[in-house]
Amino acid sequence: MKAWVAPEVPRLPGVGQVPLVHDHASGQRRVSTRGEQASLYVCGITPYDATHIGHSATYVAFDLLGRAWRDAGLIVRYVQNVTDVDDPLLERAEQNGEDWQVLAERQTELFRDDMAALRVIPPAEYVGAVEAIPLVVEAIERLRERGAAYDVDGDIYFPVAADPNFGQVSRLSPGEMRELFAERGGDPDRPGKRDPLDSLLWRHERPGEPAWESSLGRGRPGWHVECTAIALRHLGMGFDVQGGGSDLIFPHHQMCASAAQALTGSSPFAHAYVYQGMVALDGEKMSKSKGNLVFSSQLRADSVDPMAIRLAVLAHHYREDWEWTTDGLRAAEQRLERWRAAARVLTGGAHAGKVLDGVRDALAADLDAPAALAVVDAWADATLADGTAASESPTLVRDTCDALLGIKL
Question: Disulfide-capable partner of 192 in 53, 152, 244, 408 (CB 3.0 to 4.6 Å)?
């Protein structure tokens, strides 16, 4: 599956720092990568609706990580999936009276457009669930061989008991896991399961649903194993960062990790589990199921500058839960206008690099975007007020904002 066109990223003088990130599984900050290559898997969309601000916040957050890695001189291997066959997609297609494949491709293309407009650097591998079915089947067959898969009325399940470390990613109690499992697409009460938390690997064909021939019988993949199979193929076991919204901690990322660990007999699946906070609207988490959404594409259609959208997101630390407001967007538009006005001031100064150093320091400290914005704010305010930032080259500031923050001035 094709991704989107990558933005041009300026080269900056010197070398940046490898960021520390907050690892949910350990509850501690840790170095985000351990070598000359950095590997990242971020769970992608289920394309049954347009990209809302919560999605945009997630992919902008991990774009910051990728930009910081590149600035540190690392080779970045970034993989993202698209869950282009799943129950929510099929249900929406039926509601709309359209072919599910047409719906999936239209929404995936809209997502690509949004990401390109927000200047998100695309993944090296952008993989749809449908094209990954052979990988999924292979993974399930290997789980079967290891005694880590069983049949319930033709469907195939993963037994969580197969992973001795089950629960270490989510850090939740069994009761908390069961409650979330029921809320987030699981089936804890299905008869025939060995454990209420066992997750679906392969769904056998139902009337009117898409299905594919395989050694497992005609059917389609379960959600979690899709990401397990794609990540293992393209990144291997023990990659650096598994990322996504915090609503993926359980069951999705826990199940992905447990299946991989049972399949390979090793751990960890990822060395750090990093999560974007939830974005709310009118006091409730923004979600497709609730319909309380602000769409990135609609904002763009309303002539909102994508850089203002990106700045509105970056005004919040990625781990923070926050609320989208028109006031927040207005403040981002004003900030963008102020930065651009300052960047037009011809100071003729030397490349002192204070803004560059400040933004690098902020991103190194768990991707502290608000602190990075404050560095640029201080430069812009001083430049516009009385030229006291005249030693800072506006060209270097523009390149810093572009390369590290993804903001084109």
Answer: 152
